[in-house]
Amino acid sequence: MRYLNSYIDFIFESYSSGKLEVIYSEEFKSILKEIDNNDSIDWSPIANKLLDLENKWGVNLNKLSDYTLIDITDTNSMLSFIQSNRVLNSESQKNYLDEIKRVYSKDYDAYKSTISPDIKNNKEHDLWNKSRNQISVGKFVRKMFKDVIKESISDKELEKFVNQYKMYYELVKGIELELVEGEDIRKFYNINNYESNKGQLGNSCMASSSKSNFFDIYVKNPDVCKLLILRSFRDKEKIKGRSLIWKLKDGTYYQDRIYTNNDHDIKTFEKWAKDKDMKIYNDNYYDIEVQLGNHEYDYYPYMDTFVCYNPSKKLLSSDEDLWPGKGFIKLQRTQGGYESENVVYSEHYDEYIDRYNATHCRFSDHGHDFDWVYKSEAVYVESKDEYWFIESEYISYSNFQDEYLHNDESVFSEIMSDCISKDSSIEIKISDKGFDFIHKEEINLYAFEKNGQFYCKKNFIKDPITNDLKYLDRESSKELSKLIESEIDSVDKARNIIIDSYIKKNYNEEVIRKELKKYKSYFIFKEEEITIIIRLIYIHMHSGIFSSSTSNIESVLNILENDFKVKIDVKETYIKFIRHSILRTIVPYFDYSIFGTDVYKSYLYLNVL
User: Fold this and answer.
1) Which one, 114, 154, 197, 304, has least CB within 10 Å?
2) 387 close to 378: Cβ distance less than 8 angstroms
3) Do 262 and 146 fall into the same domain?
4) Per-residue pLDDT for 1 more than 50?
5) Percent of the chain beyond pLDDT 90?
6) What domain range includes position 487?
7) Is 436 among the domain residues?
8) Do you find a cis peptide bond into 324, omega within 30 degrees of 0?
9) Is 66 within the bounds of a domain?
């Protein structure tokens, strides 16, 4: 063991280079962050690279320096620092390193260049205050870039940075948090008076200008409520941070949650409160109270700390257990307002719900499986005459019927891709042996009827020779295909038959109108639209174009203009029908046999068989 300890000491001595991690004071970091956050065209990468030296995720052994504990001075051109060797020789650091060798003997290489928390986190330590060296800002930057960052830097970039440092030095040194009250609180809660909309300040749920009425509880109580603000450097009429300051019932003061555009400004607020020996938000006080004046309020803001309010006693409290049932309302709605005393407990949400916004509903068929949920989460199931939880596995929504149905009383239609009630369903044949269901109001759209049996139009066709219904399996398609090919032996011939029928109007328009009217539950067509639909149906028979995506709109219009010689005055009308998928819904179920035998055979030849 003695030999091992000697060896560890030897290794430690070998690696000891007199260099340590780079540590900045909060003041110096604030200046660097302000420069780095500058979004003007004069932005320089120098501040960002200096900030990267102070590694939050562990010490980078390639980024060590013989200067550390960097701090600002009383002048804007100089910085102060301590040599790393002096830190290494201090009692605090030696004790810290001894502990490192004891605890991290195997991996101490990764820790030996860190500085004791007792030093770096304690601005009162002698190493931050006594026998320190000074260096100009420009020389410090050059040294860091040459020795630590290992990059060159131009004189122009350095001059720009030094000038920015001097400007922000004056601003940061001149930081004065300001207490405002009354109507100024309303003013500085408004997002229009923020330096930017980033950070916790910009994302505050109470930042919207529409929330101005919610702040009377602050504005009307200047004796116990003020707002601590940090004004913007760039525009003194705007702020980049705020925090409510409360006078508690026991006479002490409390700093509420801090909202800032930049996280580094939070410490400025915290230091202000600690210097005044205030209680602060992060210390999580659960039983503090504020006695308000004798005022009434129509609106209430979201409260971070004082979540409960007793309107009769005019008392704010941080004790959440005072609500409900003890005369308090709860002030934690992100949109403002309050949770009243009239509440019910929901086991599902594990929270109380305002009774006005709650519904007692069933979750399952098992016994008395009821609970309170928000009204928006409950639906009425008419057949059961009960409210059900919207996500219950025992109910389903029917788009066609626009209602929720209990699963015991419904079936799923594959054809309609929808749930429908059993009482309203019709069985439909989808193959020689297979069946599905459709809603009885949709028979005309989806089915042929023969001898009291319904057949799916998409899967069965009318034989153009016998007019019998045939299931489109391989054998029947093959047989019918041979028959039609003996009469129509080319694609061009089939298309010419269709075009000729359209141009000569060899079709009964009234029969087509009658067929389209069968789909009135889906579509209601104007008279002038029927002609357009007939044209588009002919295009489908001619080319099958609507079986593909709406990216073929231009192809459709070209076919209309070229093959069918249709003059298109209003292209938008045609595009509307195609884009809205009207024909792509009709196409699979339309009865094309109504166009006459030759046209129907041509359609089957081109698109089906």
Assistant:
1) 154
2) yes
3) no
4) no
5) 24
6) 472-608
7) no
8) yes
9) yes
SS3 category, 459: coil
Query: What's the CA gap between 419 and 408, in Å, rounded?
Result: 12
| Same domain as 128, residue 57 | yes
Exposed, middle or buried, 86 (CB in 10 Å: 0-12/13-18/19+)? middle
**Residue 443 belongs to a domain:** no
Amino acid found at 515: E
**Residue 239 near residue 193, CB atoms below 8 Å:** yes
Residues 43 and 109 in one domain: yes
Q: CA 16: distance to chain centroid?
A: 50
Per the domain annotation, does 154 fall within a domain? yes
Tokens of 249: 């019932």
- Counting the structural domains of the chain, the total is 3
pLDDT digits (tens, 9 = 90+) for 325-366: 778 888 888 878 877 777 778 888 887 777 778 899 999 888
Choose the final residue of a domain: 134, 155, 173: 173
The token pair that represents 86 in the structure block? 């002096």
Residues 144 and 189 grouped into a single domain: no
Q: Residue type at 584?
A: R
Residues 160-167: contacts with CB under 8 Å, at least 24 apart: 160/42, 160/44, 161/35, 161/44, 161/46, 161/47, 162/77, 162/137, 162/138, 164/35, 164/38, 164/42, 164/44, 164/47, 165/31, 165/35, 165/76, 165/137, 166/76, 166/77, 166/137
Cite the DSSP H helix spans in 121-241: 126-129, 137-143, 155-173, 183-189, 199-202, 216-219
For β-strands 253-260 and 279-280, DSSP reports them as: parallel
pLDDT for the residue 577: 67
Helices and strands (DSSP H and E) totals, the chain: 22, 28
Place of tokens 């005019």: 314
Q: Which helix (H) or strand (E) covers residue 72, if one does?
A: strand 67-72
pLDDT at residue 173 is higher than 80: no
CB-CB contact of 338 with 345 (8 Å) = no
What's the average model confidence in pLDDT over 18-45? 81
Q: Give dist(CA 177, CA 515) in Å, integer.
A: 78
CB atoms within 10 A of CB 106: 7
| CA separation for the pair 427, 413 (Å, rounded) | 10
Q: Which pLDDT score is estimated for 82?
A: 92
Burial environment of residue 162 by CB neighbours within 10 A (0 to 12, 13 to 18, 19 or more): middle
Helix (H, G, I), strand (E, B) or coil at 519: coil
Q: Is the pTM of this model over 0.85?
A: no
Q: Are residues 166 and 181 in the same domain?
A: no
Q: What is the pLDDT of residue 8?
A: 38
184 and 169 share a domain? Answer: no
Is the pLDDT at 12 greater than 50? The verdict is no
Please tell me the total number of residues recorded for the chain in this structure.
609
> Mind giving me the DSSP string for 18-48?
S-B---B-HHHHHHHHHHHH--STT--SHHH
pLDDT-derived band at 499, boundaries 50, 70, 90: confident
Q: Which of 119, 149, 173 is the last residue of a domain?
A: 173
The pair of structure tokens assigned to 394 is 């025992």
Query: Going by DSSP bridges, is the β-strand pair 425-429/460-462 parallel, antiparallel, or unpaired?
Result: unpaired
Same domain, 526 and 577: yes
C-alpha to C-alpha distance for 306 and 287, rounded to whole angstroms: 9
- Pair (52, 154) in one structural domain: yes
- Cα separation, 48 vs 37, whole angstroms: 9
